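Can't paste images in this forum, so I'm doing it all in text. The chain is below; anyone willing to post the predicted structure tokens underneath?
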Amino acid sequence: MTKGPVSHSNDAELPFATSDANDERSFFAEQTTKPGSLSKPPNVSAPLGKEEHYHGHRERLRDRFRQNGDTALADYELLELLLFRLIPRRDTKPIAKALLERFGSLAAVFGAPLPLLQEVKGIGEAVALDLKLVSTVAHRTLKSELRGKQVLSSWSSVIQYCHAAMAHETREQFRILFLDKRNALIADEVQGRGTVDHTPVYPREVVRRALELSATALILVHNHPSGDPTPSRADIDMTKMIVDTAKPLGITVHDHIIIGKDGHASLKGLRLI
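Text version of the structure:
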């Protein structure tokens, strides 16, 4: 039995009672509690005149970027500049370097899945989501370059967009660019996701969707997570099946592009279709 009523009316005001408690961007001063002494208030300001060592470094990086643009900065320094905003009260240089060491390049950092980003010390869910947001904005920017344009005359933009969207996926992804009679982009859709080396593709479903969108041409795209864009026999056979199914209905398959981490392969360029 309890000796008297227990009130919970102030629970929301207890220190750290917040959904952001595990957000690495939040800052809580260390608390030291000794027997018989009061704990230190959680938001005690630093002594006047004391400044963290990385504050001056941040301003110097910003000045270099302001005066000379990105050419004055290494990849890890550009990543630092972004992390300044996401993690305001920590030295972000070690985190930026750890990200690049783990994934190998800026593109790979932004293309990495959320769970893998969070394996890097200093990166929690909130910052990982922010990094993916930056990646999504970049993808949408590249995609916007294709809207309303004749895709075949903007081939380098097509490759850039597909590489940014798919090169660092850890599973195979089959994407279709649906084009109208002017070869302008109608829709860009992911039709299937598979394993590390296989994605099931059904030619009838591809053609059915093209008819629904009134598309008259297609560009097929998929990625090889291994990094090697060389087409397999299965890739070639599947492409020919789609071509043969689409052609009688007046739908042209312009190309099938395979995206790898460091390049791409075109089945049309290789004269395989």
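The first strand starts at residue 173 and ends at 179. The radius of gyration is 26 Å.
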